[in-house]
Amino acid sequence: MESKRQQKMASLLQQELAQVLQRDLPHLFGGGLVPSISAVSVTPDLAVARVHLSLLLGGDAAERVEAIREHTKEIRFALGKRIRKQVRVVPELTFYHDDSAAYASHMDKVLSQLDIPPAPPEEQEDKPETPRPRLFNPKDDE
Questions:
Q1: Which parts pass through the membrane (predicted)?
Q2: Residue 135 has what pLDDT?
């Protein structure tokens, strides 16, 4: 369970890293699609941030994550310039590939290909409804 402090820092890092990757450093991706940041988690001491990148289009995800890892110093420096008045120390950044969107797409495709027959209609029996037992006798109230 993350503390409020960790959650605030993770939210700040997610917003600012998105700005850094899209506006300040788009040249790092060679004219390709800029990855989106799906999640950021921060350690309790706020020293390390785990950044999960969603790389849906644009080639091999492992190569793209490795290219981003090579430019971690530049990304951290640009991030530090943006958040220097809000934090004391800019956390170390570790980047991971988040393939949850691709997995969800794959599962959706698998489920749509299933051939599930409709359920048979339920037969309604003509049973007389049994009366509920009374918890008290209405004659006792009089």
A1: none
A2: 72
